[in-house]
Every structure is written in structure tokens, then in C-alpha cells.
Amino acid sequence: MAALDDMRKLLNRHARPDMSTAIDGIRVCKFTPSGASVAGMSGTVLAVIAQGGKRLALGERLYEYRSGEYLIASADLPVTGHVLDTGDTGQPTLGFGMTLAPRALAELLLEADPRDLPATPRTTSPGIAVSTASSPLLDAIVRLLRLLEQPADRKILAPMVKREILWHLLRGEQGAAIRQLGLADSALAHINRAVRQIRENYATALRVEDLADIAGMSVSAFHRNFQTVTGMSPIQFQKRIRLQEARLLLAGRPSDITGVGLSVGYASPSQFSREYRRMFGTPPSKDIHLRTPPAELVTALP
């Protein structure tokens, strides 16, 4: 596919260690298979693979996406990413990332004819989904990446092309899930409020009843919808946030295991070490990944 070839060349050309670009909300990623898994928060994003592949774990769910496929995260979720060895010796995995802003989606939905879009689903969709990228979507991404080399045009045209990308997503296979992200009163929006509450208060004890109130749902409906979106219970979700934050803190304070455990909400050092080992496969005192610079520890997407 010509668009994928062009996308690979552009991603290779503009890849930087910090993955940033001159276009707000756009990342260019270049990874080599290392065998290591990276834990972090997904954000609400579109991630497209142009070469190679990645595997993403969310709780007990596994997602793989390879060249020509895209992944949508419609909630900010604690995920673990792993670069796949696709057998292309020496070839890195190349990816494009774009933040999905609910406001931008809401504005587009207000202007769109509902008959041109998938119907709003009656049930909540999982927070992560994978699909094959359409030719119009890939073409728009290529045009956006080309604007990295056209500074005189970038300020005016980049917002237009980003809007076009959102439109193709809304019209695509995952359009119903994307639409929920842009609707202020959707079940996904209500669950995302609870997710933000947990993210901002992960170190304190949280009552499920209070989270259900924040989401505007009964406790049973909240449990059901939260499990659908995140793949885990609210308590499991909070635990993953705590442990991922602890790993980031330990990268800068590897000798302060007790202090880090306390700062993320663990009163018992032994419980902190036990749960850390259960999640990452090794106790914090022996985690070799803590030698990795903190910026790399949070790069689970694209």
C-alpha cells in the first residue's frame, strides 16, 4: 500500500527519542524489539502501526496491532506495552500517535449529520479496540506527517487534517466507541469521570459507592460498565495505578522503597513488595527496569 510506504519513510525521518513533534498532540515513535515490557497510562489516543507491531495488555485482556492496523484507547488506562519481533531482521517498529480530545470530537459530532455515522450503542464499549486502517485514514495521516516539513502551512492545515482523521475514525469500524468519547452524557464519559477520580487520588482509600455517585450510576451498573471499559474492577484499577506510579518514583529513588510505598498508599512495606512483585515479576529491590530513564517507562503507546 503506497500510503503505508510513505508513512514509514516519514516516521523514520521524524522519529526523535522523546517522540515529540511540532504538531500538538502528535507523536512519532520508533522502537526496536527488546523483550522488555513497558507499563504506563494509555491516555485517550489513536495509535497506528506502519511497520512492525506491538502487544498491549490491559488487565487480563491482550491486544495486538501490526502494520496497517490501529488501536483506539477511549479511556486513560493502565496498560503494558511490548514491541513484537515480527521477523523483519533489523527493522524497527514505527508508529503514529494522536491524542483524542473529547471536545474536538464533540464539535465534529455537532456538525455531522447523524445519518452519516454509526448509531450510538446501547451498551458501553471496551476502552481499547483494534481495527484495520482504511486507505482514507492512512492518506490523511501521511498528509499530516508531511506538514512536519512544511512549517508555513502547518499552523493552518494541521488542525484541518487532524479533524479529517477524527472524521474517518467516526466513520470507521470503531466509530461507535469513538462517538461515546465525544458525547458528554455517554456511559463512557461517566466512567471516565470515575477513572479521573482514581487517577488523581490513587494514594487514598476510595469507596466504590462514591465512585458510582461520581459516575451517576447505581453501584451495580457502575461495576458492570467500569469492568467493560477497563477490563478490571475499580480496586484492581487503583492498585495498578499505584504500582505503576511507584515504579516511576523508584526510577529516581531506587533506595527509598519504603518511602515510595507509603507515598502511593501502602502502609505495609511487605504488602507493597509482594504486590509489586506480583505485577512486575520481581520485587522493587531487584527490578532492573528501574535503571531505565523514567521517560521510557511510560511509553506504552503507540
Automatic annotation (TrEMBL):
Residues 192-290 form the HTH araC/xylS-type domain. Keywords: DNA-binding, Transcription, Transcription regulation. It holds the Pfam family HTH_18. The lineage of its organism: Bacteria, Bacillati, Actinomycetota, Actinomycetes, Kitasatosporales. PANTHER family: ARAC-FAMILY TRANSCRIPTIONAL REGULATOR (PTHR43436), TRANSCRIPTIONAL REGULATORY PROTEIN (PTHR43436:SF1). InterPro entries: Homeodomain-like_sf, HTH_AraC, HTH_AraC-typ_CS, Tscrpt_reg_HTH_AraC_N. PROSITE patterns: HTH_ARAC_FAMILY_1 (PS00041), HTH_ARAC_FAMILY_2 (PS01124). It comes from Streptomyces zingiberis. It comes from the Bacteria. This is AraC family transcriptional regulator.
